[in-house]
Amino acid sequence: MQTQQHRWQFVRAGGVDQVVIRTGADIAHLAELDQKLWVALACPTRGVEFDPATLDVIDDNGDGRIRAPELLAACQWAVAHVRDPEVLTSGTDVLALASINVDNETGAAMHAEAQRILALAGQAHSGTISLGQVQARLTDLHAMPLNGDGILNPAKLLADAPGLHALAQRIMDSYGASTGCDGEPGVSPAALAQFFADVQAVADWHGQAPAQSCGLASPAQALAAAQALMAVQAKVEDFFARCRLAAFDATALQPLSPSAEGYALLGKEALHAGDRVVAALPLAAIHADALLPLAQGLNPAWVDAMAVFQAQVVTPLLGAQTQLSWPQWQQLCATLAPCQAWLAAQPSTPVATMPVDEAHALLASGDQQRLLALMEQDSAEASRQKEAKNLEKLILLQRDLLLLLNNFVSFSSFYRRQGGIFQAGTLYLDGRSCELTVDVQDPGSHAALAGLAKTFLAYCECRRGDKVRTIVAAFTAGDVDFLFVGRKGIFYDRQGQDWDATITTLIDNPTSIGQAFFSPYKKFLRFVEAQVAQRAASKDAAVTEGLQAKAAHLAGGAAPTPAEAPAPSKTDVGTVAAIGVALGSLSTVAVAVLSKVLELGPWIPLALLGVMLAISGPSVLIAWMKLRERSLGPILDASGWAINGRMKINLPLGRSLSQQAQVPSNAERSLRDPYAQKSSAPWWLALVAVLLVLGAVWSQGGLNPWLPQRWQPAAHAETAVTSAAPAGAAPAAAAQ
């Protein structure tokens, strides 16, 4: 029999269909929902406004990210351990014991642990347990010497056993300490086993020493001889190789020996017998007979090592010698080769230098068994801690699972204006509040991806005391003319704490069609202002330079020459005439333009509209295309989310996310501003100018289409003359 499929409900929000998750049945059947319909497929466990404890229990692999499979596994686990999945929608941190499903082993263990916790708290007859009670029990378990983490804490367990305490501390110092669930250092089972394994290896290695006397009186002498030989072996081998080459070919003697130039360079420095450059010279003078002196004629850097070699190797094995030949050297190396092999086999561990007597004492003390017994007792408590952790997980999911699903599978919390978990708070700046703010770790890398959201973004550095955080705020409504780097505002986080916010980076994008329409005019005015300011600055610099030159000339005490003396001011008739011609030309051009415009008659509004569209049309078109593509997805993707759908930010949503300041509707408002800007030019001067222009246009007949027939004298006179002419003259007049 085929089971009936779960009936889902969807709503349209953000340009995509979003599933409605409200019931326990929705949670129980979430695995059946096609993940292509999910809004998000992954989110970070940090940098979001959500309890990190809940996110950590869902994050199975501990990589700091919640993925869809992990969320589904959490839903299935929670549903499997409650009798009715509807309790997972309660949103409370108090769990009824009757809600736990005791039909499976884990549920039964959680139920028993809940009863144990209540009994320890003196509430054995209570039918509910809170998250606080479970977490308090976990805190107590962590504080106990045997807390179930398998880590042996010397400070808690071995305070009354100084010997074991010192041994545990030695293991921690040599092999590193592990951190227990109480946050304190301790010895792990792996470190304990490795320590005693290395001690056994040291004992075994020392056990091979009696068989390695190498022709000497005792293994200790053989060990010392082998070490003395190894200290000079490479240098002696180098000496004999050079001498044998010199015996093979006499011409090699000089190149193989230090040169006079090399000694000359050394002579310029302050030398010491142990200097590296001295030690690099041959062990002794190179000659063809290949005899190594043991006392006189040695490199000063190797005198001490060769003395030890002679005393512990040459004399005990060859007798008293002042020189050493190549065959004798080979004999010594062959005799001590087994000892050298034994030395090379010495374990390379932190306890390699441990004396053999100490190693045997540790192995026979039984300390390893005592420490292992304590670790086994500690591990026996792990089951109780695990049950308490499972109980904590169930309560956390009962409280937070539905909220997380409404911020992951769908964004209903965001679109219902209840605050999405990715929203960091509210930024107040430039007379508006921006609610779409997201925490940012690396503004540079974030901006590279978030810029694809086609949204106006402002990255802000927020400070509160010594704390510093970076957010990105989306300005989705209003103009952005006065948003610039360095401008300051106030940021309120989700806990209501205020932060000083400063804009550090801006990503420019249109916020509305109206803003895009006026953008070309604003840019033109800013360009004109910049040009005027530039010209004024250059003129001011020129005037200042001239005044400074004049002041310097006068300060020099020199009287101005007649050629330099300023000429008396007088009016130049030619200049006045030129100014008059220029003004006349300008007035003619103005009249011509106005007359052409007025000739359009009733089409004047359409002409003006066409001009405005030609100017603002491209900007409006670009803004319209960007506003259609404005999306929340890239902003969250850059913060570590994996957004599955295109979460559009349309104009109504944008206006709700960036609200501008408004005077309350019931407030009293006086429009009289005592500091309002007053025009300095008389109003009648502008009126006279307008009348003069209209008169000039009327004189040219430019206002005829707009005036009544009786106000058009030229046309009236023509009509009168035509009516008075003889009938026979009409064809001639018409022909003319």
Care to describe what's here?
The structure is a single chain. With 736 residues, the chain is α+β, with helices and mostly antiparallel strands. The chain contains 27 helices and 19 strands. The strands form six sheets. The protein has an eight-stranded antiparallel beta sheet with strand order 13-15-14-17-16-11-12-19. A three-stranded antiparallel beta sheet has the order 4-3-18. It has a two-stranded antiparallel sheet with strand order 1-2. Residues 714-736 have low confidence and may be disordered.
Rg over CA atoms, rounded to whole Å, is 48 Å
Residue fraction in strands:
5-15%
Helix content: 40-55%
DSSP helical segment count: 27
Could you list some keywords that capture this structure?
single chain, 736 residues, alpha+beta, three-stranded antiparallel beta sheet, 27 helices, flat, disordered C terminus
Could you write a compact summary of the structure shown?
By secondary structure, this protein is of the alpha+beta class. It has 27 helices and 19 strands. Strands 13-15-14-17-16-11-12-19 form an eight-stranded antiparallel beta sheet. A three-stranded antiparallel beta sheet has the order 4-3-18.
